[in-house]
Design goal:
Distance between the termini: 33 Å
Shape: globular
Helix content: 10-25%
Largest sheet: 8 strands, antiparallel, barrel
Bound molecules: manganese (II) ion
Order of helices and strands: HHEEEEEEEEHEEEHH
Radius of gyration: 16 Å
Number of domains: 1
Length: 197
Amino acid sequence: MSGRLSEYSKRRDVSRSGEPSAESSKAGGGEHPVFVIQKHDASNLHYDFRLEVDGALASWAVPKGPSTDPGEKRLAIRTEDHPLDYADFEGVIPEGEYGAGTVLVWDRGSYENITEKDGEIRPMAEALEKGHALVRLDGEKLRGGYALQRIDDADDQWLLIKMDDDGADARRNPVSTEPDSVASGKSMDEIADEGGE
Ligand code: MN
């Protein structure tokens, strides 16, 4: 198993939670890497922002969800890498399991790494190591550039900020106006009802 996913495996029993196992990872490495944002109604509702990086999903939990307003900085807590298969996961993690609660695929698509260093694209893994990455999302709800900036002296606290481009719109608020799944069209309640009791 990849060392990057050992934390993922340690935290959960996928035979009970119904989540993808670390071993099941699909190939990835397509022409364009994928991103997914999963709305997760755990002990605290949050949005899990995940980017395919070198065969796994680098992940952040964003309590307020992403904004389309370049004036809004959204706190993003870095969490453990997830297997690529997780991008398709939608359902209910049972009570008593790590992250118990409903998971909905809120947005997904491909992304482009546009982080530059000395006029060249800096590889994503290196950009994340340095605490600064720029990505251009091509999702159904979110489009255009986003900056991920690690807060100084904070290992796991980052800011997710919309870049000021064609995808920016301070009047949109897709987190509240477009709540349903882009994978199934379902609402959180519909997924919860099907996955529960
Ligand atoms: Mn989560």
